[in-house]
């Protein structure tokens, strides 16, 4: 796996800064826009995962899984992808909703450039287990949120 050119940015979330409330779970869970650049030429698909490792659960909490995205530079269009299972057993983006007073949580938005397509709608754990060998490159953007 290379850690070279792939980059993930967002016009809605600056890396390392607080996530605006309109993208949080208590306000409406608007899906933040994501932009990918530097997709490797040999990638056949992109996947997006948003995960909160600070959630008070053994493996954190996955807020978004999205597969089947075209392997091209540009803005991610969620309707083009295929949502996978989140940790609340829903599909599609679920905004940050940490426990009150639990402090800052980090929300890792990962993009994965893959050398083979993802089949089905796996959870984050299933994806990482089944497709780790297919990851050509990955990049992340981190947002912060607390209540």
From TrEMBL:
Keyword Oxidoreductase annotated: no
Pfam families per UniProt: PBP
Gene Ontology molecular functions: protein kinase inhibitor activity
Key word Cell division present: no
Keywords recorded for this protein, A-Z: Protein kinase inhibitor
Family: Belongs to the UPF0098 family.
NCBIfam families: YbhB/YbcL family Raf kinase inhibitor-like protein
Protein name from the UniProt record: YbhB/YbcL family Raf kinase inhibitor-like protein
Organism of provenance: Demequina capsici
């Amino acid at each position: 796996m290379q850690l070279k050119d792939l980059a993930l940015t967002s016009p809605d979330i600056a890396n390392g800064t607080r996530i605006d409330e309109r993208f949080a779970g208590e306000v409406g869970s608007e899906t933040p826009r994501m932009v990918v650049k530097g997709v490797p030429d040999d990638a056949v698909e992109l996947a997006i995962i948003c995960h909160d490792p600070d959630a008070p659960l053994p493996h954190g909490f996955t807020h978004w899984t999205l597969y089947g995205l075209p392997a091209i530079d540009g803005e991610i269009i969620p309707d083009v992808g295929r949502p996978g299972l989140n940790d609340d057993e829903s599909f599609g983006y679920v905004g940050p909703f940490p426990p009150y007073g639990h402090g800052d949580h980090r929300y890792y938005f990962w993009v994965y450039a893959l050398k083979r397509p993802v089949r089905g709608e796996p959870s984050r754990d299933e994806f990482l287990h089944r497709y780790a060998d297919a990851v050509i490159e990955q990049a992340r953007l981190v947002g912060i949120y607390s209540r």
